[in-house]
């Protein structure tokens, strides 16, 4: 059985992994004033964007349209036995719903003409949280696992994927409606570095730490508290144009939880537009890694 895995550019997977596993990535769009950019790592470079943000430029994002999804899905429904689109959290973007609409439009278009097998899944995860799930699904597809085995695994991983973030500047979260103006203003004065996680697909602040160094130390403590079998997991680290911080976080995790397998990537532009430069995030499982039988 041939299975095609599709995702969107919020997944943060490096280009080499996408190519090696034959994953199709549907790009979201960013806007700067009257200009629009496709989030494909070429039309707009996340690092350039984050440097722009440091200079005060404000980027906005838009989801993938149903028409764009329909075009992509239609390319593969005839050439693969099954097509699975794994979306980033529907609680943060309407992109998942765009995929659902596209699927329904195709079902209507081909009703009575031909049948196809297309699944649209809400991962309830963001950035490398969804990326690690997509990577696993593509690896299973390459091994010849069934659609049912892959979907079961994706749902399992979605429920158990932990996301722990810290941001360097609260103003970006304020612009995105995540914190109040007062919190952003006072937080800036007091050098507050919030720690956030994802709960039921939503990005939620849950701790406030004074200083970036302490925030990173606290992230390591949380990973230690929540993680299971960390020494046998692939742990994801995203950074907002801060590779040095990502490497420091990796080093601390290696020392504290004996983790050895890491995937480090720059935050996708569509996520960094809301969290800002200097963001650090770590993704891991609160249970053992799922293996398809």
Walk me through this protein's architecture.
There is one protein chain. This protein is of the alpha/beta class and 293 residues long. Helix content is 42%, strand content 25%. It contains 11 helices and 13 strands. The chain has helices spanning 15-20, 46-54, 66-76, 95-109, 128-142, 147-160, 170-175, 181-189, 212-226, 243-257, 269-275; strands spanning 3-8, 24-26, 29-32, 35-38, 60-62, 82-87, 118-122, 161-166, 192-199, 202-210, 234-239, 261-266, 280-285. Strand 9 and strand 10 (202-210) form a beta hairpin. The two termini are 16 Å apart.
Summarize the structure.
The chain is 42% helix and 25% strand.
Any key phrases for this structure?
single chain, 293 residues, alpha/beta, Rossmann fold, Hypothetical Protein Tm841, Chain: A,domain 3, 6-stranded mixed sheet, 4-stranded parallel sheet
Order of helices and strands: EHEEEHEHEHEHHEHHEEHEHEHE
Q: Which class best fits the helix and strand makeup? A: alpha/beta
Number of strands: 13
Oligomer: single chain
Task: Quote the beta fraction.
Answer: 15-25%
Q: What is the domain total for the residues?
A: 2
Rounded radius of gyration (Å) = 19 Å
Distance between the termini: 16 Å
CATH topology type of the largest domain: Rossmann fold
**Helical coverage, percent range:** 40-55%
* CATH architecture tag of the largest domain: 3-Layer(aba) Sandwich
Largest sheet features: 6 strands, mixed
Q: Compute the average pLDDT.
A: 88
- The stretches of 5 or more residues where confidence is low (pLDDT under 50) are 178-190
How do the strands line up in the largest sheet?
10-9-8-13-11-12
Count of helix runs: 11
CATH class of the largest domain: Alpha Beta
Shape by Cα distribution = globular
